Amino acid sequence: MDSLWANMVTSTRKTAGYLRWVVLTIFALAVLGSCKTTAQKVSAKPELFRKSVLRPRLAPEAETRRVQRIMRAMTLEQKIGQRFICWIEGKQISEQTLELVRQGAAGVILYPWNIEDPEQVRDLTDAIQKAARESDPPIGFFISVDQEGGRVAAFRFTEMTRLSAANNWGRYNDPRYITAVAYIAGREIRELGCNMNFAPVLDLYGLADSTIIGDRSLGNDPTAVGTLGIHYLQGARQAEIIPVIKHFPGHGSSTVDSHGQLPVVDMPEEQLLERDFLPFRIAIQAGAEAVMTAHILFPQIDPDYPVTLSERILRGLLRERFGYQGVIVSDGMAMGALAENFTVSDSLKLMIRAGLDLILVHSRYDLVDLKLEILRLLHQGEISEAQIDEGVERILKLKLRYGLIP
Fold this sequence. Notes:
Blueprint: H1 2-44, H2 60-72, H3 76-81, E1 84-87, H4 95-102, E2 107-109, H5 118-133, E3 142-145, E4 147-149, E5 152-153, H6 166-172, H7 175-191, E6 196-197, H8 222-238, E7 242-243, E8 245-248, H9 269-274, H10 278-285, E9 290-293, H11 311-321, E10 327-329, H12 336-339, H13 344-354, E11 359-361, H14 367-379, H15 385-401
Parallel strand pairs: 1-2, 1-11, 2-3, 3-6, 6-7, 8-9, 9-10
Antiparallel strand pairs: 4-5
Helix pairs in contact: 2-15, 7-8, 8-10, 11-13, 13-14
């Protein structure tokens, strides 16, 4: 009896061992099959991986030919429209916004009065791009926003990451952190339908005046700020957002807010080149594609005109000396630094002569009136169509790279 029981126990153990082997074999095959399937899915780029809007960079000659073909299909009025980014009214697409599309505007900027919740913003931006794609020729809009972090952030939804001010990022002196922050900010605004962020701020934290730049700056060391700026550009581009470095050539030595008055920085050019201007030069040499100007007067460089209106600074310094060939964007045209010192006509004339490309109409002015004024300046010989075209060409090249032109 004991022998029989022993045989039964042995047999049962052998069976259990066999079953365990079978189960383990099946599990191993399943894991291997899953790995193979996962590898196949990754190589096949499933929906998990978003299709990038960024286009492979064409050779310069091919890019120029493509853009010039588009420009030949545009009317003069449409080309003038492409020189403006404008404010819009309301939280839904309105007749005013549709009129901007019909007038050929380059894009819009979103402000708090355009924002209610994420779904509403997506509906608004989708409607704007749908209207732009149905225009002739079909050219997508820049949908821009100020999403710097800290106290300057158009979107403050609970679903979004609350980023601290840039000055806190700079203290880490960690390029990977800056890239990550730029990617997070960019990815979140892209989800809302934006494609351009007026950031990073490359002004130096020269004077601790929070009403001007203050903690919006990455720091006070020009080389460090410029280097961190490069990493911000990388993160933004990975998120498929156009980053706009600002405010060239720097508010760091200014104590006056250009929203209300014209700041004057009376410093020698060589001193400015070594400090305030340096972060921008570093970012430009690394391939910055868009630069926003500051409404500041530097009398030892140009005693007559602030940067936004200065041919001596924008063409002579930024384009010729720094070698910058990208898009130049103005700070808000209605800001007091310009509006209190120059007529609308003079501002438009001087910006176009100076080589500025995109005019930011952040409030107050109507695009139709501004276009009519530019047409008057053209007919009077104050500006030329070639000067209009050079800016349009740079704008369309940027749109082409970021998938805004079919």
